[in-house]
Automatic annotation (TrEMBL):
This is Ubiquitin-like modifier-activating enzyme ATG7. InterPro entries: Atg7, Atg7_N, Atg7_N_1, Atg7_N_2, ThiF/MoeB/HesA, ThiF_NAD_FAD-bd, Ubiquitin-activating_enz. NCBIfam families: E1_like_apg7 (TIGR01381). It comes from Citrus sinensis (Sweet orange). One of its GO terms (biological process) is autophagy. Residues 350-605 form the THIF-type NAD/FAD binding fold domain. It is found in: Cytoplasm; Preautophagosomal structure. The keyword Membrane does not apply. The active site is at C578 (glycyl thioester intermediate). The keyword Transmembrane does not apply. Residues 15-332 form the Ubiquitin-like modifier-activating enzyme Atg7 N-terminal domain. One of its GO terms (molecular function) is ubiquitin-like modifier activating enzyme activity.
Length: 679
């Protein structure tokens, strides 16, 4: 609010100005949050921003200087570091500004505000003396903002400053009245028409400072400030006009302060007629606009270009010199808030510890989890924590009363009435935890060797084989998390055949195995179904022990077996049929399985990466931000130990060797038919 008028020298009153008021759109804070997380990190360098304001357009409400989404540059690397702003809008006069965003709340409060204000004032002062302010008058309204973004709570602390050069002694006003009373009726009509033309032209609509001349015949003309010499001394009335955001009848708006400094410095005028241009609902309103005469005394030292005048301009908050704070948490859509919060930790990793973390590759990968039990529940949650958003869970079991304590996605409600299918209950739980996840449940059994199939179920088993094949083909990563060896065999064979990233996690009572399978027989660029059409057996004959780069291929889960998988559940006691493990084992193995998967995605060689060991000369761990990429991790809770091993592919493996075709010709004929779409 403008201060009370005081009497000045010469009988005039000290000219008081109504301060600028700020307004920040929610979109600005969202853009700042994204920019901070994805591009700026801990960088506190000043950010160029753009503010917008327009002439007052209401009898009782002043216009604000607003920050919108487009006020900030995009966080895309392809975009410029400055915001791309379209010019020529009558309702959005652009004003250059600077944002200083602090990393901590403490630094926000302790920042040297007076020094920052002085820096911005110096820019205005230099623009006045260099002539830039005459060519581009928007620089006269430069502003700055200091801020702190609390991205956990979605609250934002901020403080605006609108630097104004102080005239000392202050300017006085001889006469200030509505423009409709200052102009004659003919002049008023011509001025209104000239202002309308200026405002309606895309070339001048957002030019906030101008010259208004009125000829003896009452004809009004509006010119750019650079045309001052053409207007001087030609016998016309000359007024210095500006877009005034203020609605008060007794005070001009804040933009006039630096405008008077420009007039005094550039043109040495000590008596200035000014027009506070205002509108009413988009049309020129000379009854609301003001005309006044300001008398200026040259301040001491004003002629020294190196001496920046005193500056004021920090915005008051309800009459107090304190910053503002806004919280968007309550106004945000819960799903959107959940997505932002879920990605926060991952994006913070890229600030210091892991700049090369590729969140796009994680969020775009489709993961198939075979098994939705103790391991499957943990792996699904870990994947979401790493930013994976596309998860399919396959299981044909139902949730039992014994499950919820060990399997983190289930509750007692899932056990009632015979129990829900695990795959479907897990999907519902994932969606409750994180609504943005794209989860799918598949209820089906995995065909297993050693388990006889009755004649009446042959068609169903063949359908399951075909469906499993399609699922593996449509996903990027396969996790083998079932609780029997034989249930892993067919998926292992299909994954090797389709060259998919495959991660196995298996549990004993107090020990675990986590491993990644080596690459399959085909190049990653081959089309699997086309290969099958040309003869799957021919492809399998080419399945050797070496990678495409000549290195020895890493083995699969079955490469160290000496016998084929059989029915491991027949003739077993209850404790042998159930997965009896120490409760802490599954979370450890699940976490390692997901970390291994993330390591494969970020390794330059991907699935073809060799086994790496700690402290190994050729491990390449110093070059990989996530560290080494092992082949197998075996751990023991009884000894609280863990070791990394490597097992190369075997030419006797029942799932991925070149001789498996001759030993299982009937099986491969069946798989050939499935891949060809015959069955």
């Amino acid at each position: 609010m403008a201060a009370k008028r005081e009497s000045g020298s010469g009988g005039g009153s000290i000219l008081q100005f109504a301060p600028f008021q700020s307004s920040v759109d929610e979109g600005f804070w969202h853009r700042l949050s994204s920019l901070k997380l994805n591009k700026l990190g801990i960088d506190e360098s000043p950010i160029p921003i753009t503010g917008f304001y327009a002439p007052c357009s209401h009898l009782q409400v002043s216009n604000h200087l607003s920050l919108l989404t487009e006020s900030l540059p995009s966080d895309s690397d392809e975009q410029s570091s400055t915001a791309e702003i379209s010019r020529g809008s009558r309702n959005k006069c652009t004003v250059p500004g600077t944002l200083y965003n602090s990393n901590t709340l403490e630094s926000f409060y302790t920042i040297d505000k007076q020094s920052l204000l002085k820096q911005e004032a110096k820019k205005i002062w230099e623009d006045i003396h260099s002539g830039k302010a005459v060519e581009d008058s928007t620089v006269l309204s430069r502003f700055l903002v200091i801020s702190f973004a609390d991205l956990k709570k979605w609250s934002f602390h901020y403080w605006f400053a609108f630097p104004a050069l102080v005239l000392d002694p202050p300017a006085t006003v001889v006469d200030l009245k509505p423009a409709s009373l200052w102009f004659s009726s003919q002049e008023a009509e011509s001025v209104s028409a000239a202002c309308s033309d200026w405002r309606n032209s895309s070339l001048t609509a957002d030019v906030p400072y101008f010259l208004l001349t009125i000829a003896p015949n009452s004809r009004a003309t509006i010119r750019h400030l650079k045309d001052w010499e053409a207007c001087e001394g030609d016998g016309q009335k000359l007024l210095f006009g500006f877009y005034d955001p203020c609605h008060l009848q007794n005070h001009p708006g804040w933009p006039l302060r630096n405008f008077l400094a420009l007039i005094l410095t550039r043109w040495k005028l000590k008596s200035v007629l000014f027009l506070c241009y205002r509108e009413n609902r988009g049309f020129t309103d000379l009854g609301l606009s003001l005309v006044g005469e300001a008398l200026i005394t040259v301040p001491q030292g004003w002629g020294d270009h190196q001496c920046v005048p005193n500056t004021v301009g920090w915005e008051l908050n309800k009459g107090r010199k304190v910053p503002r704070c806004i919280s968007l948490a309550k106004s945000m859509d819960p799903t959107r808030l959940a997505i932002s919060a879920a990605d926060l930790n991952l994006k913070l990793m890229r600030w210091r510890q892991l700049p090369s973390l590729n969140l796009d590759i994680l969020s775009s990968r489709k993961c198939l989890l075979l098994g939705a039990g103790t391991l499957g529940c943990q792996v699904a949650r870990m994947l979401m924590a790493w930013g994976v958003r596309k998860i399919t869970l396959l299981d044909n079991g139902r949730v039992a009363m014994s499950n919820p304590l060990r399997q983190s996605l289930y509750t007692l409600d899932d056990c009632l009435n015979g129990g829900d299918f695990k795959a479907m209950a897990a999907v519902k739980s994932l969606e409750r935890i994180f609504p943005a996840v794209a989860a799918e449940g598949v209820v089906m059994a995995i065909p297993m060797p050693g388990h006889p199939v009755p004649c009446q179920e042959e068609d169903s088993v063949l359908d399951d084989c075909r469906r499993l094949t399609d699922l593996i083909l449509s996903h990027d990563v396969i996790f083998l998390l079932t609780d029997t060896r034989e249930s892993r065999w067919l998926p292992t064979l299909l994954c090797a055949n389709t060259n998919k990233i495959t991660i196995t996690a298996a549990l004993g009572f107090d020990s675990f195995l986590v491993m990644r399978h080596g690459p399959g027989p085909f190049s990653i660029t081959h089309d699997v179904k086309t290969e099958a059409v040309n003869g799957l057996s021919a492809d399998m004959d080419n399945l050797g022990l070496n990678n495409r780069d000549g290195g020895q291929r890493l083995g699969c889960y079955f490469c160290n077996d000496v016998v084929a998988p059989t029915d491991s559940t027949a003739n077993r006691t209850l404790d042998q049929q159930c997965t009896v493990t120490r409760p802490g084992l599954a979370p450890i193995a699940s976490a390692l399985a997901v970390e291994l998967f993330v390591g494969v995605l970020h390794h330059p060689k991907g699935i073809y990466a060799g086994a790496e060991f700690a402290n190994s000369i050729d491990s390449g761990s110093s070059e990989q931000p996530l560290g080494i990429l092992p082949h197998q991790i075996r751990g023991s809770l009884s000894q609280f130990s863990q070791m990394t091993l490597v097992g190369h592919s075997s030419n006797s493996c029942t799932a991925c060797c070149s001789t498996v075709r001759s030993d299982n010709s009937i099986l491969f004929y069946f798989l050939n038919q499935v891949l060809n779409g015959v069955l």
